[in-house]
Amino acid sequence: ITILRLSMGCSGLSFNSVPLPPVGTYQRSCEGGAHHRQRRSWVWNQFFVLEEYTGDEPLYVGKLHSDVDKGEGQVKYVLNGQGATSIFTIDENTGDIHATKRLDREEQAYYTLRAQARNRENNLPVEPESEFVIKVQDINDNEPKFLNGPYSARVPEMSPVGTSVVTVVATDADDPTYGNSARVIYSILEGQPYFSVEPKTGVVKTALPNMDREARDQYLLVIQAKDMVGQMGGLSGTTSVMVTLTDVNDNPPHFSRKSYQFSMSESLPVASVVAKIKTLDSDVGPNAEMEYRIVDGDGLGLFRITPDRDTQEGLITLQKGLDFETKSSYTLRVEVSNRNIDLRFLSLGPFSDTATVRLIVENVDEPPVFSLPLSKMLISEAAKVGTTIGTVSAHDPDSTNSPIRYSIDRNTDLERFFNIDATTGVISTAKPLDREVNAIHNITIFAMESLHPLQVGKCIILITVTDINDNAPVFAIEYETYLCESARPGQVIETISAMDRDEPQSGHRFFFSLTAEAAGNLNFTLRDNKDNTASVLTMRGGFQRHDQTMYRLPVLIMDGGSPALSSTNTLSIRVCDCDPDGAPQSCGSEASMLSAGLSTGALIAILACILTLLEGGVDREMDRQREKPLILDEERDVRENIVRYDDEGGGEEDTEAFDMVALRNLKLVRESGGKTRRDVTPEVPSLFLSSRPPPDNGIFRDFIWDRLKEADVDASAPPYDSLQTYAFEGSGSAAESLSSLDSLSTDSEQNYDYLSDWGPRFKKLADLYGHSDDGNLLAS
After folding, report:
1. What's the predicted TM-score (pTM) here?
2. Where are its TM segments located (predicted)?
């Protein structure tokens, strides 16, 4: 055991430690102020203590001694710093330092403390404070750990030996600078002979060639890391590595069978899938994607084969329609191959396969087929009823060759303009045609098998009605022609044009002229402009309104058809007072009255007489209406009256309780918010109307309105001019019930004698519910 001594000045603290051997001495002297050297022990300002001490007694660390301490008990030693008093203690008399707790280098590798010698009596320092370090010395107490484990790795199947898979790393918490406690060696415990691990680097590699994923796709490895360079007594840790073999395209596809047979109906539509062929491939993902093609057979243009994206099955689809009577079976030779081929494995064989597919067509009863699904025909609008337009033809495609019967879909010929011969298919007119009403008729023809009426085919016929010259030309618009009083002779006052509902192939050509009776007039003339228009010109001036306000000029318009048609159209010309720019200002009708030979005063007198007569007639009619009673006679028609019974006692003659306007115009009543009619005031007094407000008619109005809407949308309802009767009594009565059932069940003692005061209409009720002489209630 060597005493490590630290001398400070001519006197100082000495540190005695246990663990290190003697290496020399060092002394410093201050005697006489002269310095001289003398061999003494080397001095370090640090102590060493082993970690994980498990003894029962405190662990001795070292000794602190001062040159001032002469052993007389005048000096005491004090320890401060990290762990002082809690981990490390010092004997104040001897300076011995002990560790009272077990230390762990991995938690704290060293402790820095301060030591001082003090006078015991006055506690003053006898030497300056000195700092020293207690270093925790490592032992192999930590095993290697894989902080990133467990591991998972992927490596392609069929990889060569030595292919790197993954690198595992283990760490040791022990001191790597002291001994071999942290030097780790790797080894494989499980996973041989398929994989190996580099002892120093931890790189996991493949150890066997041609590992096949289809045989086994996962391997669980156990890797060990051991410290002390793998020697006996070293600590170890393990981790697992899950190695998955990824797929490569090392397996060719092949059909599950060499020949297939499928059946298909001849009525299948184009693009239907007629067969699905299963192909086997041990690979997965992109390595199992297929490509198909038809390499031979008698249906090369009729069928197509493509892969299903999800299942990679071969889907044979129909490209054209089938016909059992034409061909009843097909034979195809199909080939399958991988879409993504790995050239490294071509030596294993061809990555394709072939199979034979036989497709059998099943016969079905097909509807008749028209020779043309769409036909166009022409017919003149001058054709007489019964004129043949054209012929349609259909046949039964089945071997039975059933006779065909033809008919017209009347939903496409509602007015029944056409007929068809049920046997021959000849289409003819059934009514006169008018091109100007309907120029093209689109009708549907049905062809039905006589032996199988449910089998029906159809075709579309477009019948175009050709034009004939059967409409005379007329004015293009309704002209309003104004003639200024200041017009000069030869002035154009209007330019007219014509229209014709016919449509000649060469276009319209119209000729304008005045009629024979108007040709000699001295007021106006007509000039044909040769461009389907004509100009109206004045022949004189001096037109005056007071002479004549309106002139009517008959114009003859003729078309260029064969035969030519013409019509006479009258042009009304009004004489007006115009401003200097020629704009009409006043076009009164006074002059036309004068032309009738009557003066203005005479006309006013006539109008006054007419108004007087009308006023007298209206007054007499109103007086006659006031004299009529409001209560209807028995002979009068009462079908438009609805009697309200919710008063329960109003009687059959009480027709004023209900407003008839609510029934005559339901829509108007609903829009007005249910306001009752106020323009009629009953003249016959009513006991109930005077005693309380009239009940709300909204219940009956809503009921009738709802029934009306139901009838409007009900296809099975009677026609609009029918009478519908509903037994609806409303939701209750404001007068409450007068039922005798309720009276008897509740032993009611209510007095109904007041019924006799209501008049003869309630006499029957008064007799039934009034009290008898003996005071008992009568009931029927």
Report:
1. 0.45
2. none
